[in-house]
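On clarity, I found the account of how folds are encoded harder to follow than it need be. An entry of this sort, consisting of the sequence and the corresponding backbone structure tokens, reads as follows:
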Amino acid sequence: MKRLIWAGPARRDLFRIAADAGELDRDLPLILLERVEKAPLKLLDYPGMGTPLGSTRLRKWPVRKTPFILIYAERGDTVEIRRVLHAASDWLALFS
């Protein structure tokens, strides 16, 4: 079985998401973070399910019932979440 790790930028993304959501509704950060943290569990069994990002080794995976996507890479026995980004942002420019 693969293991899951969250890269530093992804962890910072989670803190930013929680802070921004907390300004809208005090319960929203917990709901969003729970969904984001559960989203990559399927990728541990099927890491190739995400959509490839061009010629990079990166893939994207949507977080259900949120506006966020995970950017991740498979490295050996590890799935590494690199970023957690809003799907409507210009996220693709970060990886071109």
In short: Helices lie at 8-24, 28-38, 41-45. DSSP finds three helices and five strands in the chain.
